[in-house]
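Data deposition worksheet. Section B asks for the primary sequence of the deposited chain exactly as it was used as input, without tags or linkers unless they were present during the calculation. Section C holds the resulting structure in token form. Section D is free text for depositor observations; keep each observation to a single sentence. Incomplete worksheets are returned to the depositor.
Section A, Depositor: J.P.
Section B:
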Amino acid sequence: MRGCLAALTMVSALLLSPAVRAEKVHAEVLQDGLDHPWSLAFLPDNQGMLITERSGQLRRWQAGAGLSEPIGGVPEVWAQRQGGLLDVVLAPDFSSSRRVWLSYTVAGQDGRAGAAVGYGRLSEDHRQLSDFREVLRQQGLSTGANLGTRLAFDRSGHLFIAFGDNFQAEKAQDLSALQGKIVRLNADGSVPADNPLATKAGARPEIWSWGMRNPQGLALNPASGEIWESEHGPRGGDEVNIPHRGNNYGWPLATWGVDYSGEKVPGSKGGRVAGTEQPVWYW
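Section C:
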């Protein structure tokens, strides 16, 4: 499958209309020929954007110049199923640090892989990532499903990372594992001292909240300054959450979805379970 970068333009009146008519939405193809484009990050000063291709390439696209050759210095990735080169975000101080964060999957044992996160310094000519450093890697391995690995910075400069359960639902409630967790780090990759489990014996200190299934959306709400998360549920049970400090969002104990077979999710106790948080919205 090949992908494209497109621009959508709408008249402002459509934003006020309860019913948007498809014929009033115009799509313009800016770039085609991309190989499973997964994420993009806008560069400052009209320098274009960085685009990840899941098969392992990081490229720059700029209006008038088009798509670059692959940027050098990107770590080798395990590109199978949902795995590969995934998210890309710029550090809040990118203008001075030139730091670019990536999430990706790396090969492990027996044909499995783990999700990893790291950063490098982007050269001024946008052709090379130097001094790439892997900061965090899941120890449990996956067959390439429910990886998550979205990245977002808050206004304080903390990096949030959304890790999926790797199709191992019970891991989402295991505080010694990173599967099914929202992780919070300092801008340099260190662990904040005020993380909720930073001093809890047997728990991963990076964890901010837990009980997620397959988080594929993570973003800063510009109005409230809170981090919002969206995740793929099983059959139904997709959710939008606001992951607050030290909260359990339920998976797989609490879910509004069912298993792919139509049966109850193994271990589920229903949609509402004491000690777990309800989603902002589910469908």
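Section D:
The longest helix spans residues 94-97.
Confidence is low (pLDDT under 50) at residues 8-14.
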